[in-house]
Amino acid sequence: MIKAISHLGLAVRDLDEAIQLYEQVFGVKVSHRWVAEQDRMEAAAFKIGEVEIELMQPLGEDSPVGRFIDKRGEGIHHIAYKVADVQKALSEARANGLETIDQVPRRGGDGKTKIGFLHPRSTHGVLTELEQDAG
């Protein structure tokens, strides 16, 4: 089912400050930046090898990323895996007893992917995103 790691999502309070750290200290440049209205966050991504680091700043304390930061602080929010077919992967996950957050795929915040999430209660505490290129 999994083809590769797509990205690691990191929750941050201040996106511009986090971008500055990655550019100045780690020497990487933002490959794209966007606002995901549905998820109420602003994000920026850095491509490092075949994997992206996605920095996510909440657009409100009551947003999913805002609630995550309030509960756990800044840090790793989720891991995303590339799959060939998100709908099939979600169905297979449910058939194997996993709890899904999304029943059907939805468009990713970057507009380039279809995504679905597995609940961390089912994946040993790790919020897991399944991602398919939207083509």
Automatic annotation (TrEMBL):
Under the heading CDD domains, the entry gives: MMCE
Using the record's annotation, list all stretches that form the VOC domain. 4-133
Q: Which GO terms describe its molecular function?
A: metal ion binding; methylmalonyl-CoA epimerase activity
UniProt gene name: mce
Q: Which SUPFAM superfamilies match?
A: Glyoxalase/Bleomycin resistance protein/Dihydroxybiphenyl dioxygenase
- One Pfam family linked to the record: Glyoxalase_4
Protein name as catalogued: Methylmalonyl-CoA epimerase
Q: Which UniProt keywords apply?
A: Isomerase, Metal-binding
EC number(s) on file = 5.1.99.1
Q: Name one GO biological process term.
A: L-methylmalonyl-CoA metabolic process
Q: Does the keyword Acyltransferase apply?
A: no
Q: So what family is this one in? A: Belongs to the methylmalonyl-CoA epimerase family.
